[in-house]
Structures are given as structure tokens and as C-alpha cells.
């Protein structure tokens, strides 16, 4: 049936105009359940003593006026002015008013009586804040809201951009089961791949879904606990963790420098949410704090529905976000249908196939206690119950089932009290006496319903079985949902026609009369009309079958498109895309609108997959923390028992103290009687002064220094955070160089770069210079730290990117250095290394690669800095030429050269950095960095240019450049000197010229002739020129002469006065 079709208006027996029949034929027993019959809406007794014979009971409209007047007079009321049809309309109006008042009364009653019994204090606090007519909603914080509403990188698309690789994303899989969670993630990953994202999968364990992931054209590897700290997460633009099971791996992302890598954590389990209140009751605050710390690390935590973030509200730090959509309900329905039969389920639950089972469901948030949704629903479906569940009024028996809460006596008692309050409230409104009812069955009996026509099942039981038994599902919630109700999706997946209020979120995806039937909420008459459309002669109508079929087809992939686009939008608004990264496709380009069912069809057809989500890490952490508390308590008890002194111990202590006092007094008496020679006063004074001087051990050599004895070279590994420690090497060839004092390894003899170069105390300049700042610290008074003929450096990134020297390559390097002659630079991390499987097909030159890494401004910045450094005229070429051959260039500061050459390179680098900083400081926007496009690139503005600076210096200064293959140790000379002589700008890189320029800057600094307010050059190392040397020599000579003069005067004074030492003790 089409969307705009107009189904006939039928009554419950398949007849048209049932409303008129109900009004005009009050005496007809088959039609006394009309829509507007007051007796049918509230079938209550006048008083408890009235006869129970059904045939003797009359409606209010059938009684004589005299009887009615007598009853009102007995109640003390005035003469009633309405008669006949006017009385009928008045009662209709009054019933609507009574419905509203009863709802408020009942709501207050439920809030006071039911919520008082909740076991969870955090749920109770939520309920106490709600009032009738309000709804419970999850309101995301400002930052997660921007993830969905932000503008993304649309402005970046309008600028020229050079990129050679797609944005990299790491995905950490907690498990590799074939379940709905894997289906959702596989679908999202495949769609994002079409937009240009490149994925690498890290699996914590193998599973059935391994083949599916390997076939997605992604890099795949397993990640064990011992490997968590050996992954360079900075290689990725973002990391996605798929479940709670990935918690331990997230710990490696909580240390510097990986704490700035964007982390997206997907949580689809409620296992931890159920345990959080228990932790508070057990006093496991440390366990809650542990989880909250991990939750805080994630930039955004994604949930598939709006219920989970409210359950996890105890851990919310403002990073919760919801992307609706999951195939779990459809998967569960189809899997359950493969293994269960409708007729068998009905037989097991006491229903027959001839029964018309109507299932009433509502909001599933308050699943452990009764929600007022069902109380209001009982009022709304009251006419429905009385019309279709009365005795002998239909060819087929109607059964109404409430699916809510838990299958416990407490919940059933709450449901009974709610039903009883409903009857009592309505009887009070109409001044009608009612027999007290103590159970749902008795209430149903007083309403005229058959025995067993109303039942209750809990959501903690076989909810799928209850749904599969139903013929019609009625969604009776009074609250407007934020997300599409999952029970409706599951009902549609079972092929059951659904009647639901016309909430906006449901109307957004479903069409009235095509996928379901809508009715205005709190409108019993509209509900009855909607229900009548699905019934024909006591069975489901053809219209109902059409609606059920269309709904089942739609439910297959409902919310799939929203889920995929939601993830794409989050990535666009969360991630930073460096200058060398190709921008991904626009979200509007996504055409995927369905889940990848074909990859999981076999599992669904067999129906043997457990879709429940459990988390072993939650149980493991509970056991660990509980064991720690038990062990701590046990140790405290044992220590207290051991420390307790017995009477024998106290007697022994007293005896020892008395003996020590005796020996002390005896020694004092002996010393007083002994004659001693005090000696000469000068000697005594000299010995006292020596004892006061502290013993310095600066000249003592530690273990690391002893290991490096006799080595020709030392490679300094530069790092700045504790997360980089696992990437550092151990042995006599390497020594750590820490750019941060708090990140320095305590058990190693690493060099403190901040102590050697105070400029690095300023985080602004430390971020600007990066590894080059550590090189400047070594070059500053290098003789005090490095006394070997060769020196090398290596960034910790080299180990993270698998390009550090192997043991074999280290041996080759050491042997080659011993027989090397002349200036040679050996390097092993090449510039064109961009990642496995991501090599560009385009031929990239040195300067094009530099432009790519620096937002397209490398050549301009280098040329301007070079021009300012040498004070070249504007019409002269200032960009040193670099060959366009197939040779390799150095990167990642991974090279070795003679110490003398390193000092020359440091001198050149200091002047170049100062010129670059001068251009940056004198620009119109000094706070802006034109060498980067992302926040991190702008923060580390000079780093990428300085990383390549060693190539320009080595090439034009005539140094040999030799590439060492880091794994095999194979040597290969790059850009031979003979072939580049005609291209070299040797005059600018001549040592004599550089030394003269360095002395000129030192003289200006010595005279306080600063060219600008913040002059960087004097802060990057030694300030030395001939004038300073002469002044220091003169100062040393003056001090020497003063010392000689004072000594001579002292001797003359003694000779003149005849000074003589007097004996002491006389």
C-alpha cells in the first residue's frame, strides 16, 4: 500500500462506521464497546455491595433520571442541568479533563513510591529531578557538539596543497569476533577508505573476522601487551579504539608525545556502566578513578545510542558524543528467527496461534524499575483494552503484553500498584465507588477483561521471544526520544506491524501507512482508530501485512547512512591534516547507505552467534584492584602483629639501654683522666676547614662513560617525553639527550639539554627548534661533554619508523669510521621514506619535498633567510640549487660526522635560525607560522626546515654524503663531490667566512648592540670573538698579579713585626 493511501475506517469487527454503531445501539451487546461510551471507558461498580451478576449491571446512560438525581442528592450535589445527548458530550469532555488530572496525580505517586526503592543512587538522583511532561535527554558538551556541527576543513580546500599520501588512521581491535560491532566498524572503514583514508589495523587477538579485515586492503598486525609501548602513534593522524577491551593499549597514548594524538574511543558495551555503582558501594574509588583517567584521555568517546552516555555519566568529562546507528537489533532479530519458531514460543508461554497478541513497549532507559511511560500507556490504551480484551466480544482472543522492567516480584508489585492507582484516581474523579484490587489480574477483572488477557514480561528475560510472539507492537512511551527507539527497529526486523506516536525522530525515518501507523500521543481515540486499521475479522488485515513487510525491508539498513556520515564528520572536525597529506573526500561524497551484510551472511543464517557484548578487561581490573586491597590489608595486619612488643622484648630493650649508659659513663671518665696533645693551632684549623668542605665526585666516571671509553663515536638520541623511552637504544654507542628535565630517564646517564642550554627552558623556543635545540646544547662548550673525534645524532622517530641502525649496520658504521679520511657525513634515514606502501608515483625533488612538508613555503622561507643571513641584494639569487637526481637525502636528524664538522654545521645553523626567526618576528603577524597548516606544525614552525638544513650545508660545503642501509649496513655514496662542483655555492659555506660572521655577531652581542628586541642568536650557544678572548686573558693576568702582590705584602708584614706563633695550652 502506498504512502498516501487512505485505509478504510473499520471497527474492531471489520465493520465500517463502528463509532456510529456504538452510539446508536447501546442495547446491542456486541456494540457496547464504542469509542465514546463512558461505561466502556470506565466500567466501574457503584458500590462494593452491588450484585456481581453482569446482566444486572447498567451503564450511567441506561439508568432512569430519577435514580441519577437521587444519587447526586445523596452526595450533597445540586440538581444536574444536562440531559440526554448533552450529558453524553459533557461526560466526554469531563473524561478528557479527568485523564489529564489523573495522569498528574499518578505521576506524582509513581515518583514518590517507586523511585524510593531504587538500588542505584545515581539513577535515583536523575529520577528525582524529573517532573511530569519532561523528558530525559543527553546534552553533549560544547566540544563534542562541534564535532558534528563544525565547519571541518572546507577552508583548506580553497588553498593550494601538495600532498603525496592519504591521512593515516590506526584502528585498535579489542577482539575479532563476527558480531554486529564488527559489521558496523567494517562498514565504516570501507566507506572511509573510499574518501581517501589509509588504515592500519592493530588486533589484540585473532578471531573469525581476521579474513574480513585482511581483505580490506589495509595493513594488519597483532598487538600484544609487550608491544603497546613500541608503536609510534605520531605516524597517524588519529587512532580509533573499538571497545573497552582496548583500555590497556590506550595507556601508551597517555604519555608524551603521544598524548596529543587524537583518540576516538567507540564504546558499545554497558558492562562497565552496570558495575560503576557497585564500585562506589564497595569503596573502589581508585578503580573508578582509573577508568575515568582513561576516559579523559580520549578526545571523543562515541556511543551508538543516547542511553549509554547517560549510563556512563559518572565518567563523563565532556567528551561524550553519540552517532546513532548500529546493526545489532536487526542482527539479533534475524539470528533469533533462524533458531526459534513463533508457534513454539506461544505454546511455551500459554498462547495459542489463534490469539491476537498485542505487545506494548516503551522507553528502555529505566529498564530496572517501572517507568511512568507504562503508567501513561495504560491510560492511553484503556479503551483499546476494553474494546478488544473483553469477554466474548471477538472471534479471536486478544492478549495484551507489557514488555518492561525486570521479571521480578518487585516490579510486578509496582505495576499492580500503578494499575490500582489508575483505577482509584479515575473512580475518585467520577465519584464512583470501586472494590479494592490487589493485583493486575484483579484490576483486569474489574475492568471486564478476561483472565490472562494482560501479562507482563521483563526486558531482562527473553525479550526477543516476546517480540517474536507478538502480532502487533504498540510503542506507548510518553517521552520524545532523542534517537530512534531500538525496540521499534527490532520489532520491524521481526516483521511485526508497529503502532507508534508521531514523534519527530520516528517520522524522520518512517512513513505513516507505509512502514508503520502513527497516532497523536495521549490520544486514545486516535490510537483505537490506528489499531482498527491493522485488524480485520479478528486477524491481521492485508494492510497490516503490507506495513510489516515494508517495515522489515526498511529496518535492514535503517540509520546506516547516518552512522557512516557521522563518523566521517567526526574525523573531519577532529583530525589535523599535515601539509604532506592529501585531504580526504567530502562527507557529501559518501554514497554508502547499507551495512556490509554480505560479509557476515553465513553467521546470521546459522544463528549461532552470541551478540551479547562482554568485557574481560572489566572483570580483570576488578580482580586486580580487589586483590591489591586484600593484600594491602593482609600485609598491614602482619606488620602490626610483627611490630607488637612482648614483655620479654621490653625487658631486653631496657637491659640494652642500661648497658649503653654504663659504657658511655665509663668512657667519659677515662677520657677525662687521659693527657692529650692538642697540636699546633694552624694544623687544627686547617683540618677543620678540610672536614667542612664537601666531597665532590664530578670527576668520577659512571658506568655509561666507562663503557664508551675508547669509542670513536657517540650517537646522541634526542627525545622529549616518557613515551619515547622504549624507542631509545642501550649500549656504548648511544647516549640519550633529553629536551625536557621532567622526561629525563633517571637510571641512565642521559644529557640534560636544558641544563646545557637555558634557552630550552622556554617551551616556545623548545617547540620551535625541536631536535636542533638539543644539538645546540651539545655544541655549547662541547669539550665538557664530548671528547671523541666523531659525533652523531638520531631522533627517536627513527626507531618508531623502523629505520634505526641494526646491530649489523652499527658494526659496519664503526669499522668504516676507523678507516675514514676527510669530511664525510653518514646518514641512514632518508627523506623519501614516507611509509610502507605509500610511495608516491611522482618524481619529487629536494625543494618540492621541502615545500610539501612546510605548507608550500619552504623555498620562500629558505631564500629569504639565506638572503638576510648573508645580506644579499634583492636581485641576486638566494636559493642554493639542489640536484634533481635519484640520490637520497638525510632526514630525522640521523647522521654521523667528525666533531669538527659538527661544530662548523652548528655555527652555520645558529646563524640561519636567527635569520629565519628575524623574518618571522618582523612579519605583520608574528604569531602566525606560514610553514605549517595544522596546529602542531605551526607550533613546531622551524622544525621541518631545520631537519633538511644539514643536506644543504653538506652538499654545498663539499662533504661526502654516504647512505647506510639501516638493516643490512650496505654503504652507498650519494651526490658525489666530483659531479656537484659546478653547482656548489662553496663561497657561502667557507669556514673562514662563517667564522668571521660568527665573530661579528659575537662582538655585537658583547657590546649589547642587539639588532632587535628578542635576538635569538646569543641564546643558542657560545658568544666568543677575539676581543672577549683578550679581555679574559687580561682578567686572568690581573688576578694573577693581585695574588702575587698580596702574598708579598703578607710576608713583608710578618718580617717587619716579627710575628711568631705562641704555644697553646700554657
TrEMBL record:
InterPro entries: Glyco_trans_1 (IPR001296). The keyword Transmembrane applies. Signal peptide: none annotated. Residues 1-66 are annotated as: Disordered. It comes from the Eukaryota. Pfam families: Glycos_transf_1. Residues 50-65 have a biased composition (Basic and acidic residues). This is Glycosyl transferase family 1 domain-containing protein. Residues 11-34 have a biased composition (Low complexity).
